[in-house]
Write a structure and sequence with these properties.
Length: 364
Amino acid sequence: MTLAIALLLALGVAYGQAVGSSDLGAASEFGQALFYAVPGSSSETSFQAHAGSIGIIAPQSFALDRHGVLKGSLPGDLATTARDHSVEIMPLVINADFSKSGAAALLRSAGARDRAVGALVDTARDLDLAGWQIDFENLPSSQRVAFSRFVGEVARALHRHGKLLSVAVGARTSDDPTTYTYRTFAGVCDYSALGASADFLSVMAYPEGDNSHPGPLASSPWVERVIQHVLLQVPADKVSLGLPTYQTDWSERRVRVSVRAKIEGKIKHVFHFIYRLIHHNGAVSYPSDEPLQWDPVLESSYRVEGEGHHRHITWIEDERSFAAKLRLVAQYHLHGFSVWRIGLEDPHIWSILPDVSAAAADHR
């Protein structure tokens, strides 16, 4: 028995209540398992190997431009695997290039919105999709009302044709409109309004840190605060917890900076060094003979290399970190979880997840 499974059993999590729509395939004790995918990547290989543990596959392969024109296509290999394993397909539709101005133009134009709604309905019917997930990013909070209106329009049209709509929303732990996160990213999402229109919301509970506050992608205490905040406005059975399955590297870099200073009555250029934290994300990777360190409070795994300003810290969403957040999904009886993304994950996470395709077959 793996440590992660033992942790879950010790915590006694049992989530047997039905969640979500019956049209979305089988649900496990952790609710509906949605995995995001990127076409032409390791996503396809991992999906083929683990499709039985996935209820919904959500390829990021469509976009709406400022005129409401839908562009993109369904990845053939992902679609074939999904059909073969009875996995529902719910593609992401993004604002093209995640353009703030493009999305704003779409949202304020009734004609562009009508064009977008029609294209989403027609494509969902033509491709036999379960529905869509709207993932509009980089929108300021000033677009909050307009975005909620658009989601409502899309939801009503899809529902009339038996299709579903979900929305990817930014995570926050408060509704303070003065914070940077609220103003520039998460505040555009009116949880209450979006939850009333959509079938469920995928709350992207990552990344927690930034260049000013480096750390894990999603510590359990922070993720729990995110859950508690969204549940003030949205029923639990409409909340899918967005989980990361990758790693982020933080490194200190020494940078030479020139400043003007007054020295002995004269203005002179002075050079000194400052330290800046930079990071990048990538697939989970660690040597099998190198055990990771574990923070029992944050419930996150990490590795430290180097010293001083050469220190390199990697926070890794491994099996233990993943299991800790699945516990929260069960504890709060959420709709399920949404994973970014398949192909980056620690392969050990699959031992935690049941074969929902087998459960569906048994149910039939």
